[in-house]
Amino acid sequence: MYLEIITPEKKVYAGDVDAVRLPGADGSFGILNNHAPLIATLKKGTVKVTDNTKKVENFDINGGVVEVLNNKITVLAEA
């Protein structure tokens, strides 16, 4: 699946990933391949990205929104 993390200043991440863990407003949650369509608000926390080579990267955000649709994840985040 494809992930984009975008802040008002720049695109922070773009690429294929295996898994994403997000700080949801109602608690942390994960997204895997073929996830159901979703729109959710995010709180301050860390977005944990596991890419196709199993490399893990962390991105700190101050809140935002995530949309999941057709194996594309778009995170609009406050950095």
Give a structural overview.
This protein has 79 residues and is mainly beta. It has one domain: F0F1 ATP synthase delta/epsilon subunit, N-terminal (ATP Synthase, domain 1, Sandwich), CATH 2.60.15. It has no helices and 6 strands. A 5-stranded mixed β-barrel has the order 1-2-4-5-6. β4 and β5 form a beta hairpin. The model has no long low-confidence stretch (mean pLDDT 97).
Number of domains: 1
Shape: globular
Radius of gyration: 11 Å
- Main sheet: strands, sense, barrel: 5 strands, mixed, barrel
Name of the CATH first level: Mainly Beta
Question: What is the fold's blueprint, element by element?
Answer:
Blueprint: E1 2-6, E2 11-24, E3 27-32, E4 38-51, E5 56-69, E6 72-77
Parallel strand pairs: 1-6
Antiparallel strand pairs: 1-2, 2-3, 2-4, 4-5, 5-6
Can I get a quick summary?
By secondary structure, the protein is mainly β.
Key features of this structure:
single chain, 79 residues, mainly beta, ATP Synthase, domain 1, five-stranded mixed barrel, globular
